[in-house]
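User: Please run a holo structure prediction.
Assistant: Happy to. Please share the sequence and the ligand.
User: Here you go; the ligand is calcium ion.
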Amino acid sequence: MEKQVFSVILAAGEGTRMKSNRPKVLHQVCGYPIIEYVVRVASEVSDDLPVVVVGHKAEEVKQYLGDRVRYAYQPQQLGTGHAVMMAKPAFEDKEGYVVVLAGDAPLIRSCTLQQMVQHAVAGRYGAVVLSAFVDDPTGYGRIVRNENGDLERIVEHRDATGEQQKIREINSSIYCFDIQLLFSSLEKLNNSNSQGEYYLTDVIEIMKRQGIKVGVLMAQDADEVLGINTRAQLAEVDRKMRLRINRSHMEKGVTIIDPEHTYIGLDVVIGCDTVVYPGNVIEGSTVIGEDCVIYPNNRIVNSVIGNGVKIQASVILDSRIGDLTTVGPYAYLRPGSVIGSGVRIGDFVEIKNSTIGDGTKISHLTYVGDAEVGKEVNLGCGVVFVNYDGFKKHRTVVEDRAFIGCNVNLVAPVKVGREAYIAAGSTITEDVPDKALAIARERQINKQGWVERRRQKFQGMQSHE
Ligand code: UD1
Ligand code: CA
């Protein structure tokens, strides 16, 4: 029978070096908390829900992760070995392997974890450590090998001798252990080191002393093991994740003009031949179609964009946009905006919780809130959908091919019929029938010769002084 694989994620630490009020693992990389990436990768390789060891600000971490993981609680952060001990109850009756991951290392890939498990099975190892060769090993535990090149022990940076500090092969803090051997070895752990902590890394030496085989797997891509301890490392990992995500879009046929300055979330889907300019932030579950041009500086969140859409310098939240529509510059589509095909949403247009039919033009300076706007409607410059009376929001309906002149107020609830016209500057408070013209403004008066009369009156007053 194939052995089962489980996983433990260490996330109880405070992350002192982040200088933050927030638990370290909830800081964001490419739009998601660091731990999100680790949980996803762990879930891919485990036969059961991953166990997350929480401690510092445990409630915040649990609130974010919810019930897609199991939890172990570490009341005091006494070290990584102690943290794993806290997970013991979750493995009481389990056999097989457990992959241990650091909650602060989000670049790890599931294929690397699978390789570690295969390595452990093939070599009958009690433990396999994922190592990496790095230019600057400062702060990391070092992999100490014997004359045969076999793993001897792991020495923490602070406990390392000058000679050991020169070693550039580092411990990733990602391991694959035989479950039974791990927990029996953890019982022999002590905290006689520079930090007075129970180090998980000491399990290697303990196993070796008992004649249990231990192995090392060196990560082919050293970036995968990068841990985040500081804000500078957060920025570095963010950049690497960003480039990884962007590369995968480019491989699928998306043009990303400047991958260093394009911010696309892990779950975003983009169709081929779409071009993404720099300065875009595309987040959440956004799906963008084919042949779109996403000009610079948009923020697009949880939205579905059709094919051939052009968007520039706009904010689009929880909305849908049909094929061949253009948006912006400087448009704001707030949640619940459903825009049809071939629509034009121009500059300084705000839309909220409204549907806009195919071929409608809303070219400039307009607010549409809580409305149903039909097809091929024209909203002139400066139209305002007056949807709020101070207590309640009301809906407006504008039917197909209606023409709303510039600077019109539509005071909801109100309905404008098909092909109706509304004169510029009107404030509409009553329904407008189909094909009617509504004018709701004061009639213009021209006072002939008024300027001349005024001047004479003024000069007459001055001559009396
Ligand atoms: C650890 C390793 C080090 C390795 C490095 C890789 C040990 C002793 N050292 O050092 O060899 O090179 O990771 O990044 O294991 N945690 C707990 N409870 C604790 C302490 C830590 O849950 O009591 C968690 C932290 O939240 C974090 C992870 O374990 O997610 C690693 O802890 P951290 O303090 O960052 O260890 P490092 O000093 O980086
Ligand atoms: Ca760390």
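Residues 10-13, 53, 55, 74, 77-80, 82-83, 102-104, 140-141, 154, 156, 170-173, 199-201, 227, 229 surround uridine-diphosphate-N-acetylglucosamine (ligand 1) (CB under 6 Å).
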